[in-house]
Every structure is written in C-alpha cells, then in structure tokens.
Amino acid sequence: MATGCGGSTGEAAPSGQGDTGATKAPTIALFLPESKTTRYEAFDRPLFEAKVKALCAECRVLYSNADQDAAKQQQQVEAALTQGADVLVLDAVDAAAVAPLVNQAKQKKVPVIAYDRLISGIAYDYYVSFNNVRVGEMQGQALLDALEAKGTRDKGQIVMINGATTDPSSADYKKGAHNVLDGKVKVGREFDTPDWSPDKAQQEMEQAITALGRDKIVGVLSANDGMAGGAIAAMKRAGYDPMLPITGQDAELAAVQRILTGEQYMTIYLDIRSEAEKSAELAVAVGRGEKPPAATTVDNGTAAIPAFLLDPIAVTADKVKDTIVKDGFYKVADICKGEAASACAKAGIG
C-alpha cells in the first residue's frame, strides 16, 4: 500500500456486473489524516475501497492522505471538489477547523460524511465512528483492574498520555478515562501528544519518569498503541522489568504481540472493517441521492449529526484468541513470530 500519498487516486475498474446507466456511479473522495498510525493505510483505506468496489463497480474513489498537515488536507479537499467528487468522506486532521471546507462542499451540494472524528461548527450529513467516551472508560477501567491485581493502585501515581488536541476523539477518550480514574488513582503527569506521535510519547514518558521518580509510577494510560510503544521504549531505557501496566488502542500488530509477551497490558480493538464498510455503504447511497436512516445522533456543538457509533472491545492477553484472531484481523502466522511465538503457544493461539 502507498503511504502518505496525498492526492493519489484509485479508480475502480468497470465490470460487466457493475451499475447500469439507470444507476448513478458516484465519485467518492476519501480523506485520511495521517500515516503514523498503522490503521489508516493498512486497514481503513483498503477496506473502504474494497467495499465501494463491491457495491458499485463503476464508482470512482479519489484517495488522499494529509500526513497530519491541515493545510495539505484543505488543498486535497478543494482539489477533489474541483475534480467533481459527489461525496466527501472526511477524517479531518483538525476537526475543529474544517467547517469552511464542509461549507464549500455544501455550496456545491456535495454530501459530507465525517469519518472517525467528529467535525464541529457546522451541520453535515453523517458521522461514523466508535463510542469514544466508552473507549476511554474501558482503558481507565482496564488500568485500574491491572493495578488492583498488582496491589499497587494506592502506592504511586499514573502517567496519562493522551492524543492530539486537534482530534476531538482525544477529548472523548480523555473524558472517559477520567470518568473512571478520578478519585481512585493519582495522576502524576498528563500530556496531550501532538500528532499522536510515538516519538513524542516516548519523550513525555521520559519526562514523567525524571519528574516523578522511577519508583513512584505504577501505571500508564496511553490513548493508543503507537504511543504505548513509545512509552514502553522509555520504560525499557529506565530499566523497568517487568513493564508497568499500560493501555492502548487500535490493536496494532506490534501491540498485540506486546500484549501476548506481557509488555503491554491491553488494547482497544476497534472493528475498523465495520467502520470502513459502513462509511462506504453510506457514501455510495448518498452519492446516488439516497438518505439512509441513522441509528442515533451526536451533538457537534452546532447541530445533531445523524450518526452510526460502533462498540469498542477491550482486549487483554486472554482475549486475543477470541477477538482479534477469531475475526481474522491478523493471520496467526503474522502474530506468532519471534518473541511472540512461545507466548502464542501459552495463549492457545496457533
């Protein structure tokens, strides 16, 4: 898969079983925010494109990745509108600042679907994501469970490594985590991490260890797996063995392996297939002029946005087999490599 290919275009090839002239084959523009997080290029893009092709062989998908650059994403959206996109599926780099882009689309009567991140400041057609406050609550509860099991909840402080402030989902994850953690454990240091960067998360964890003292930290709330990897690198450098309990999200392959080997406590498994495919279904439908009913609405501060919110799943080592492996999210051969091979055998995976 190409990464960070802003403005790249994938075109579904026509087939004899595609749409007839009586059925519109819309041009759908998909915009993803960055490629540092593995999921976007490895899962969201190919799953979305495959579903569109399955539903509408003659549909065209214009794909762009903004590489965490809001100005670049603006250019990509404007270019897609110029190229005649009939629908925008937008995972915004800065979801609080893209209302003018959505307004440009509305002026051209082009429907907008907010993908994964809730766009604020303007009304639009649909929002497809996960219950993000619930994600944070699950992470917070998992960390508390781990601390209780170790008997360390009241014997030190935790570090919270939150996501980028430009992503409104980060605020939801943080809110959910605090809903569970506040009053039950002391937060020694808390960071909002630009770009969801694993490197910056490593630096933040190093700062926390220096400021609080190596033996004063009992656990880490990391909002996603990439940043958890950065924090774990910092803990390794500081000599932690075993690692402190640390949370994650996205079920990245490296994180699943870390969970099995005991370096990471848990991840939040998001069924990205369902999210990508639901968004593709909506895009094809609204591109053809249909208006599918939404399961619920979400208040974005300006309007009640028709929404589809999917359920997250908390996964610890004992649940990998019955979730990630069972769903075929990764091949067993890819998980059970190197240091993870013996851990897989112990977990009954193989």
Strand tally is 13
Measure the end-to-end span: 27 Å
Going by CATH, the homologous superfamily of the largest domain would be Response regulator
Radius of gyration: 21 Å
What structural category do the secondary elements indicate? alpha/beta
List its salient traits.
40% helix; globular; eight-stranded mixed β-sheet; alpha/beta; signal; 350 residues; three-stranded parallel β-sheet; 2 domains; Rossmann fold; Peripla_BP_I
Give a structural overview.
α4 (132-150) packs parallel to α5 (168-181). α1 links the parallel β2 (27-32) and β3 (60-65). The chain starts with 8 loop residues before the first strand and ends with a helix. The chain has 350 residues and is an alpha/beta fold. The radius of gyration is 21 Å and the shape is globular. 40% of the residues lie in helices and 19% in strands. The strands form three sheets. Strands 1-3-2-4-5-6-12-11 form an eight-stranded mixed β-sheet, sandwiched between helices. Strands 8-7-9 form a three-stranded parallel β-sheet, sandwiched between helices. It has a two-stranded antiparallel ribbon with strand order 10-13. It folds into two domains: 9-131 and 271-310, Rossmann fold (3-Layer(aba) Sandwich), CATH 3.40.50.2300; 151-269 and 313-346, Response regulator (Rossmann fold). Mean pLDDT is 93; it is low at 1-22. This is Sugar ABC transporter substrate-binding protein. Its main location: other. Residues 1-21 are annotated as: Disordered. Pfam families: Peripla_BP_4. Residues 28-291 form the Periplasmic binding protein domain.
